[in-house]
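Hi, can you check this record?
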Amino acid sequence: MNSLDLISRIVYILPWRVSYFVLRGVSFLYYIFCRRKYLIIANLRLAFPDLAMKKIERIAYENLFESALRFWEFLRLRYMDRESLKEKVEIEEGEEAWQELKEGRRILVGVHMGSWELVNSYFALNIPCAIIVRRQKNKALDKFVNLIRRRYNLKIIYEDDLKGLARIMRQNINLGLVFDHGTRKTKIYADFFSRQVPVPIGPLRLAWRFKRKIIPVVVKRKGTKHLIKLFRPVALEKEEDFSPVANYLNRCFEEFIRDNPIGFLWAYKRFKRAKDVQLIVFSDTKAGHRHQALSLAEIISQVRPAKVRLIELRLRRGQKVVLDIINLLLRSPSNLGFWALKIILGKSFNAVFHYGDIFISCGSTTASLARLVALFMGAKTFQILRPNSARKRYDLIIIPEHDEFSQSKNVLRIKGALHSISSEKEEKAGDRLRNYLWQQKDFSLKIGIFIGAPLKKSASERSKKECEKFIQNLKAFSLSERAGLLITTSRRTPLWLEEKLKEEFSHFSHTLFLLIANEKNYDFAASGIRALSSGLIVSADSISMITEAASSRDTFVIDLFSAASQSPKHKRFLGSLLQEGYVRQISADSLPQELKVWQRKKSFLKCLENDKIVREHLKKILGK
């Protein structure tokens, strides 16, 4: 008698109550110290996003206990008599399908649910049955496992034994396969808990090739009994039926798992190769940071189908500091780190701890939080702008060239702020904006003007004079060249400038559109102006506005407010764009002449392509 036989004998003779308490204790210790539980929690969070975390954690623990029971029952099969096995299992639903199985030549398809080894043995006692299995790396273990299986007349076919499979398919024997493993080379995807997951093509191809019906099967535990449910059999007439049948099978399994989540094997990366990716965007509620993070999510969706969940939260300074420290110290998931997160976030923990394949954040406030949650979810972390700690542990950090930041493999440099500029979306925004134009005159030349605010709260007299001169020269150019004007301010634009713009352009004959952002705003205004304009004039104060403009149309940057108030990195940003020909700098005095030269040449500036640079880099990371 070898060691495995001895263990099986001990397990078999142990009283149920003793075994129960031993398994409870082992499951509790495993749950406390094993990191595998975080994969279970992550998968449960995906499948049941509306469940409270306390409920999720309880299911995760019971799921581990179910795994312990499953292993214990399999060891008991080594010495269990056939009558005892039959008493433990019964068909709860699907009597018609059961009668078909007695006829043979059917394909049983299941998932890793309940005590599947015990149920396989039960099937073999009552109907002719064979299963396809994977060869264990340990030869002694492989021999022991298959010895138990064959004890109940269950025929074994190794997945690489094609001759044995062909021989079984020619006989009047039912074949059992799993539908949640063996998906590495498949090209068929089906819905499973709102994700497009790969499904094994083997069962579908065998059913079609040998004209066999597929019967989905699941099992649940009720006390010490195991209840089997057989779903409606389905046939495949042609290859085009593969996808609909795969969706039907996954739908059967999902409905059952939703009602019995404890029995499913959640400790498996079932969603790892899903066609679509789940993006979690953390926002610190700053509009600029939120816009950049959502832009990255949109670029990712151009590489892979994606679903986006936006989570906005305000972290206190103390929370942020502690999260930065934990982020620096934590290299892998740990119970201490998990509990620390729960304590620090408090009531926000349930809202923050969601399943994601990629976590996105912008700015330092949410950087550490995004990386820590991603760590427990086994996900990637993409960070925009400088994180405070653990820089090398992020999968991607997108940094503007004008920021001083050490270069490493995970750092991608771009010019200015990140924006996703889609010509299709801009055209739609332009179509919407046309309905709001003040007049429908056909101006062959249209100029879009984006006006920001002084970088310092108080504007100098020089700035006010510069703005006055700019307004008069812009009106003069518009009249002389018959140019329509589309003007918008930002939420930072000072009141005195807003009043001046309304006074000068509200009744100006060439004004097509004037938007005072602090009074009224439209989500399509900025994109619409870029779409309808031939060229753009942007005040030099906003890196974000300049980047968006230079990514869309020929852009002229004008310093309406004092350049002395610009930071060194702001000056580096403008200097880089000017030097490389992405924008042209003008003054209020040179505006008419510069625009006339540009009008004659049509276009002489390069288009900024940050989104393209990021998209190509993402294809390498995401494997497409």
